[in-house]
């Protein structure tokens, strides 16, 4: 067993921005121009040859030229159009839990990790007076893990981390009390194309790499606006003609393949 201090260049660096902070910035920038609808999800999509009829979980409907599924690894849009995620998601044998905890070690732009066979506990802090981010990783390709079962996942991590030293007992107390824990597994998405008819997928929904180096390279591909500029994808939408979403798929596949082949 070994603990290590991780410098800012590796963890909690100046350039890092938390996911929640980033989405808030994006939201504030466009909230007056974009119609956001929180608390609903798409439950049905039907191509009517002039557009897509979309049904939402609150029963409302709408008609759209194009639907872009940017709804992450467990994409509901992908499920509706391409089928269940078991067909496309390859598990890489690791699951994790992220949560906030009191910054007892007063970590300031640095992180610490404690590593044992199949288990890594890490703490990172960007401000000694603010909560630290705790993460627990478990490597076991056979573990029964369901990211949706928060209480079951908490029990699993407490069991598997029992007896570990360093700050781990405090982390396990924090895990038990945490009101919010982000549990998931490390997985990749493999699809032959990222579009079907008037529906396109982007980001983790389309090609989740879950690989440190690939993240950096693929982040350039994530925003839908990149499609039209970097990918040189042109889409013309007329009431009677479907957009050529195949072009988007071809350009994007090349970027995804090259990112995955990066050592
Ligand atoms: C542990 C971990 C660490 C990572 N660290 C890094 C890192 O250091 N650097 C990096 O570049 N990348 C990192 N990544 C990867 C990065 O987080 C993802 O690649 C990125 O967030 C993908 O963005 P996305 O918008 O495609 O999906 P997400 O960020 O998953 O966003 C999907 C959104 O869709 C919403 N949603 C889901 N279902 C529905 C629905 N049915 N209806 C409406 N909305 C829905 C979700 O609430 C969420 O807001 C990390 C990933 C993990 C798992």
Structural descriptors:
12 strands, binds flavin-adenine dinucleotide, six-stranded antiparallel sheet, three-stranded antiparallel sheet, FAD/NAD(P)-binding domain, 2 domains, alpha+beta, 27% strand, 263 residues, D-Amino Acid Oxidase, Chain A, domain 2
How far is it from the N-terminal to the C-terminal residue, by CA? 27 Å
Query: What name does CATH use for the topology of the largest domain?
Result: FAD/NAD(P)-binding domain
For CATH, the homologous superfamily of the largest domain is named as FAD/NAD(P)-binding domain
Number of helices: 8
Give the overall form: elongated
Low-confidence stretches are 212-240
Total domain units: 2
The biggest sheet, with number of strands, parallel, antiparallel or mixed sense and barrel status, is: 6 strands, antiparallel
Instruction: Tell me the fraction of residues in β-strands, as a range.
Output: 25-35%
Structural class, please? alpha+beta
Task: Calculate Rg over CA atoms.
Answer: 21 Å
By CATH, the architecture of the largest domain is named 3-Layer(bba) Sandwich
